[in-house]
Design a protein that fits this description.
It contains seven helices and no strands. By secondary structure, it is mainly alpha-helical. It is globular and about 60 Å long.
């Protein structure tokens, strides 16, 4: 049974309902974490045990460290909200496919291409923001004499990036979900647990790959050549 189809009532695209569901879960978690932090008597001290606040702080700290490790310490923290939101959305959307009766929204190329376009627009914006009009110089190659050759190649390379991001994520999540379904139907109760673990690993890796490539594009757009 496909619960996304039931929730959509055959009136809305399933991928849209899945995306809304993921956004709703993230918003609820964010509101709960914000309230927990606001009610803390000593916000500078970590909670003891596993709480909404402690989990959210671990997530934010990990995303901050991850982004800084790829971009460098300078200016990395300002980009954490964007890349952190992108990572968490893709991760939860991927993991949704592990819930029986649900399909991962990221197996739909419409959603993955939309995410890739957002990433594309963001790194182009960062290129102009950090380098101004000089960012256009990166499309002309190292020597102006090579500009007529390099310009179409650079434009094609940049336009191919969102396409490759979208295809990679959609294809991998579709394959992961299909294989998980096949193997769990062929085996008994205990064996599928191993496939769920492998599926969860794939979900995390694909979210990391998408965000890592997006960060690398921003780094290339912002750095001097």
């Amino acid at each position: 049974m496909n619960f996304l189809a039931l929730l959509s009532g055959n009136r809305l695209p399933e991928v849209l309902v899945g995306a809304w569901l993921v956004m709703g879960l993230l918003l609820l978690f964010g509101l709960a974490a914000g309230r927990a932090l606001a009610r803390a008597e000593a916000p500078q001290l970590p909670d003891t045990g596993i709480t909404v606040r402690s989990v959210s702080e671990i997530i934010v700290s990990g995303l901050d460290t991850f982004t800084a490790s790829l971009l460098g310490a300078h200016g990395a923290r300002a980009l954490v909200p964007f890349f952190g939101s992108l990572f968490l959305f893709i991760l939860i959307a991927n993991l949704l496919g592990l819930v029986p009766g649900f399909e991962p929204p990221t197996s739909d190329s419409d959603l993955t291409f939309a995410l890739a376009v957002i990433s594309f627009v963001f790194y182009i914006y960062q290129g102009f923001k950090r380098r101004g009009v000089a960012y256009l110089r990166t499309f002309l190659g190292p020597l102006l004499v090579l500009a007529p050759l390099m310009l179409p190649l650079e434009i094609a390379d940049n336009l191919f990036r969102p396409f490759s991001l979208g295809v990679r994520l959609a294809a991998n999540m579709t394959a992961d979900h299909k294989l998980l379904g096949v193997f769990t139907e062929m085996t008994k109760l205990v064996v599928p647990l191993a496939f769920y673990v492998l599926g969860a690993i794939v979900c995390v890796v694909q979210a990391l790959v998408f965000v890592t490539l997006s960060i690398s594009y921003v780094k290339m757009a912002a750095q001097e050549h």
